């Protein structure tokens, strides 16, 4: 069930994020993600349009979209991969926003495949100065009716 993020979800969401992002980015030091956690907790979660997926009382995934239609986070628990949760969360966001943007590391091939299937297109790229890795900027636009 998709629902708005609640304040009492913060601990579970940050734990899910730290585990998922570390597994999804083995080419980046886990310390980098640990240092980034306060930004997620203190900025991203409270200031974004955030939704969670919950199954039988277990938080299985979440998405955060900023006011600028920027997806700052979309993460699914590794125990629930390939069960359509990411598709459902993305579809929920697409109903709310006519355009979405996001950034993904070029080396994160699984995420790139997912976003391509979701209709995102490459609009730019840059090298992250902190990690040294190439980041792709992707965009999705709602088709005119």
CATH class: Alpha Beta
Low-confidence spans: pLDDT under 50, at least 5 residues?
Answer: none
Distance between the termini: 28 Å
CATH architecture: 3-Layer(aba) Sandwich
Tally the helices: 4
Averaged pLDDT: 93
Could you say which overall geometry the principal axes of the C-alpha atoms support? globular
Sheet with the most strands: spatial strand order:
1-2-3-4-5-7-6
Could you spell the SSE succession in H and E letters? EHHEEEHEHEE
How many individual domains? 1
Number of strands: 7
Protein name: Putative acetyltransferase
Keywords: Acyltransferase, Transferase
InterPro entries: Acyl_CoA_acyltransferase (IPR016181), GNAT_dom (IPR000182)
GO molecular function: acyltransferase activity, transferring groups other than amino-acyl groups
Blueprint (SSEs and pairs):
Layout (H helix, E strand, L loop, with lengths): L1 E3 L5 H15 L5 H18 L1 E7 L2 E8 L4 E7 L8 H12 L2 E7 L3 H9 L3 E7 L6 E8 L4
Parallel strand pairs: 4-5
Antiparallel strand pairs: 1-2, 2-3, 3-4, 5-7, 6-7
Helix pairs in contact: 1-2
Detailed description of the structure:
It comes from Biostraticola tofi. One of its GO terms (molecular function) is acyltransferase activity, transferring groups other than amino-acyl groups. InterPro entries: Acyl_CoA_acyltransferase, GNAT_dom. This is Putative acetyltransferase. Keywords: Acyltransferase, Transferase. The protein has 145 residues and is α+β, with helices and mostly antiparallel strands. The chain has a single domain (2-141), classed as Aminopeptidase. Helices cover 37% and strands 32% of the residues. The chain has four helices and seven strands; from the N terminus they run βααβββαβαββ. It has helices at 10-24, 30-47, 85-96, 109-117, and strands at residues 2-4, 49-55, 58-65, 70-76, 99-105, 121-127, 134-141. The chain has a seven-stranded mixed beta sheet, with helices on both faces. Helix 3 links the parallel strand 4 (70-76) and strand 5. The radius of gyration is 15 Å and the shape is globular.
């Amino acid at each position: 069930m998709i629902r708005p993020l609640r304040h009492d979800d913060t601990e579970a969401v940050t734990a899910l994020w730290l585990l998922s992002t570390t597994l999804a980015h083995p080419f980046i030091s886990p310390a980098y993600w640990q240092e980034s956690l306060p930004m997620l907790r203190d900025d991203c979660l409270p200031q974004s349009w955030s939704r969670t997926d919950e199954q039988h009382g277990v938080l299985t995934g979440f998405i955060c979209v900023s006011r600028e239609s920027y997806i700052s986070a979309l993460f699914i628990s590794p125990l629930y991969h390939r069960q359509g949760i990411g598709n459902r969360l993305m579809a929920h966001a697409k109903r709310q926003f006519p355009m979405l943007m996001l950034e993904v590391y070029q080396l994160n091939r699984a995420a790139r495949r997912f976003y391509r299937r979701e209709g995102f297109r490459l609009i730019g790229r840059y090298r992250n100065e902190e990690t040294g890795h190439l980041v792709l900027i992707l965009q999705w636009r709602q088709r005119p009716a």
